[in-house]
Model the fold of this input.
Amino acid sequence: MVGENMAALFLKVIACEIAFREITYLAAQSDNLIDLEFITQGLHDIPHTGGPRIQERIDAVPKGKYDAILLGYGLCGNLTRGLAPRHTPFVVPRAHDCITFFLGSKERYASVSQERVGTYFYTSGWLECLRRRGVKASAADAVYLPTRGGMIGNAAELFEEWVKKYGEERARYLLEQVEGWTSHYTKGALIDFPFTRPLQLDEQVKAICAHRGWQYDEIPGDLGLLQRWLEGKWDDESFQIIEPGEQISASYSDSVLTAQKRQKSACDPDSKNGNCSGCGA
Done:
């Protein structure tokens, strides 16, 4: 198995920017040589095109350069289902989504979710991804709207944008639909790490909770899963290794995801048939 009995590995990380601070913090302390690449958050909103974008970055990895590719995604609403290595195996944490990364294991995520029903989780990445996209919003005067795929910005700015696109009546309807989806949340919880405390993320989340009438909560974070991932300690309970000739598949069990024989599409770059049929590309 890749990662066993090797003193130092040369690894390529392809990850969602949502875990930028946590991954770079751990990578700086790793004995392994690690090249980092981060992709804009929100691809699980558009899995039909988001998945192929990740596959493009996997395909761009040079053959023979790295010992393994570390894919910094979970199943993420089936965003990663079907992703396949061309020549270099990749390692995927067993996670439904990125919150597992910050809580240390899929088991702890399940436990915390059961204990804190109606809680929306925040980390530095969830608070900062909007600014990375150029959205100007502050926790003091903005409402961050959680959706099925993440946060889509400042409510006031979003309403103005939709008014311009669709008119005021349609914009109000869309905003009500988004707000309605968040109605079952009653708490906002910051997943806390000592190294991010100088960022005063707690003040931002407290302001969001106050605006929405939610209770504020803090949960100690755990970077154990990400640390083992970067160190090459890939136990079967926590990670799935996808070898060339295989692809990611949902397991529909406690293991979350698994490897299956790769299914080639008509427009696959490795396929002899250069024509695309039925994939929507």
